[in-house]
Amino acid sequence: AADLYWLGRYLSRTQTLLSALLQAFKEPTRDNLTIPLSMTATGAYYYQQYNELKDTYIAAFFMDAQNSSSLSYCINAFRTDAQATRGRLSQALWLAINTLYLDWQAAALTQKDFADVMQRHQALQAQLNDLMTSIEHEPDAQVKLFIKIGLCIEVLDNMMRYSLIKYNGDFDVDAALQQVAILQQQLEQLPHIVWGQVNEGVHQLQQAIASQPQAFLMQQHLQNVTKALSDVFAN
Asked: CB count, 10 Å around CB of 34?
């Protein structure tokens, strides 16, 4: 269950980072190029390696597998989680994940110029969309459930991070509540005696979003949920 949960989290993390990078490459203003660094809290690490902010440098930085916040690292992480649970995954889902991983590895070795980098990032976006479709059609309900829990948690976390960076903590309350509702739907399928603390944390998060929609407070509630999840997985 923990591996599937983290598969979902790293998959969502990849999608969010890729979206920010594509926007930065499309309009390479200083603000746009800074957003991926701010979202991943890697600004200091970036400037240890590069002396200026450039789209080509940003692309290289987020393809570096040694960078634990890079696309390459996240893709490798969710592929590793898929390997750990391969006996439960459908053949279609495993092939979608493994093909994406192999294609990305090959691209990192063969890319020639920035136009090639852009093309590869766009291809990755299409593959990620196809992978999400494969998850929706996954026949094993438990596999799909735990991946979706991870996806929901990561979407909420990234929503709060982005709002603090871009909008001074203001966020789309309706979108956040919708994600919480999806998360609750998944948790309702699990035994309350085991997942009760997680359910309670999600309920408190929902109440806080509705009554005090402040990103910093939401992050604190979300941390309580992730801690409760970690406790369940540990036991």
From this structure: 16
Do 177 and 117 fall within a single domain? no
Residue 198 CB partners (closer than 8 Å, separation 6+): 187, 225, 228, 229, 232
User: Are 21 and 65 found together in one domain?
Assistant: yes
Q: Which of these, 138, 235, 132, 221, lies nearest to 191 by C-alpha position?
A: 235
Hunting for tokens 């390696």 — which residue is that?
49
Q: Backbone dihedral region of 70: left (phi > 0), alpha (psi from -120 to 50 degrees) or beta? A: beta
Question: Are 104 and 193 in the same domain?
Answer: no
pLDDT per residue of the chain (235 residues) written in tens, 0 to 9: 999 999 999 999 999 999 999 999 999 999 999 999 999 999 999 999 999 999 999 999 999 999 999 999 999 999 999 999 999 999 999 999 999 999 999 988 877 788 888 999 999 999 999 999 999 999 999 999 999 999 999 999 999 999 989 888 888 999 999 999 999 999 999 999 999 999 999 999 999 999 888 888 899 999 999 999 999 999 8
Q: Which residue has the tokens 């309900």?
A: 141
Count other Cβ atoms within 10 Å, centred on residue 13: 26
Structural domain tally of the chain?
Answer: 2
Residue 229 phi/psi, 5-degree rounding, is -65, -45
21 and 110 in a single domain? The answer is yes
pTM, 2 dp:
0.94
